[in-house]
Write a structure and sequence with these properties.
Helices cover about 55% and strands about 5% of the residues. It has about 290 residues and is α/β, with parallel strands linked by helices. GO terms for molecular function: peptidase activity.
């Protein structure tokens, strides 16, 4: 098992210091080690397009702001903190599930786009992806909130990686149901909270943790099948509209809030920790939780 934290501090600096004509090639070279992260996407994937679509930092404008953001990440020891957090989280997870086989993981940390209102405001300057086993991607703007929860966000994405690693839960994009994604977000938050306390909550879901109407609406969609529906049911209507999904009447982060409630109810009933529940089927968690929640 090897955890590789890509030196994107140097990589981003090389992109930003290059002439505008050279920047695309340098950015593509920086992103190449995570190309297989997009293996679930149909057809050939262009890394620069995925970077832009994912609110990655701009290479043709706002250079001074991006350089300043990079300086803040370096000053915060972001790469070192993420590395230490992942090491500690893997040790905790192995204590709970000694038979777990931890895959090799490559970690990409890049700045987001400070001019993207959706990114900066609606999703609070943070996008994480750990669902493709073997890769963790963290796209962020170094706000105080995001810098404070670097460790929690990294171990949240690690939890996804380990849940879907070989020997764990099988992920089939065509047949997976919304309930699996909702539970996986709740489990990842619960594991981050096990490691780092309240900062483990994904911020976009916090406002709806106690909203019964939101919870009931998400529960009504748990059996919806197919990965293409996740943005609507997990992230909410605003995200669905941005990425071509169909709104279902949910606020931003609704699935995270519902997932936390379901997982917390399951853990309370069973006495298990989030780490111990890593590979529990989502159907089991949902059944136990809904029975407990009445």
């Amino acid at each position: 098992m090897t955890i590789t934290i890509l030196d994107t501090a140097s990589g981003m600096r090389a992109v930003l210091d290059a002439s505008e004509a050279e920047r695309p090639a340098r950015l593509r070279a920086m992103l190449e080690p995570v190309a297989d992260m997009y293996r679930y996407f149909p057809g050939e994937v262009d890394l620069l397009s995925m970077h832009s679509m994912g609110s990655g930092f701009p290479i043709g404008r706002s250079r001074d702001r991006v350089v300043d953001g990079l300086d803040r990440l370096v000053a915060a020891d972001a790469w070192g903190r993420i590395s230490r957090a992942l090491d500690a989280a893997i040790a905790t997870q192995l204590d709970a599930v000694p038979t777990l086989v931890v895959p090799d993981i490559t970690v990409l940390l890049v700045l987001g786009d400070p001019d993207d209102t959706y990114f900066m405001e609606s999703i609070r300057g943070f996008i994480g992806n750990g669902s493709a086993t073997g890769f963790i991607s963290l796209i962020l703007w170094p706000t105080e909130e995001n810098l404070a929860r670097l460790e929690a966000s990294a171990v949240h994405e690690l939890n996804h990686n380990l849940r879907y690693a070989p020997g764990g839960v099988v992920w089939d994009p065509a047949t997976v149901v919304v309930g699996e994604q909702v539970v996986s977000e709740g489990l990842a938050d619960a594991f981050a909270r096990q490691m780092y306390g309240p900062s483990g909550y994904t911020p976009i879901g916090v406002a709806h943790l106690d909203d019964d109407a939101v919870f009931d609406r998400v529960v009504g969609g748990l059996d919806v099948r197919g990965m293409q529906h996740f943005v609507s049911w997990v992230h909410g209507d605003e995200a669905a509209l941005r990425y071509g999904g169909e709104p279902v009447g949910l606020p931003m982060g609704a699935g995270y809030a519902a997932g936390n409630r379901l997982v917390d109810a399951y853990l309370s009933v069973t006495g298990a920790t989030a780490a111990e529940a890593l590979h529990v089927p989502s159907a089991t968690i949902i059944e136990v939780a809904l029975r407990e929640l009445g």
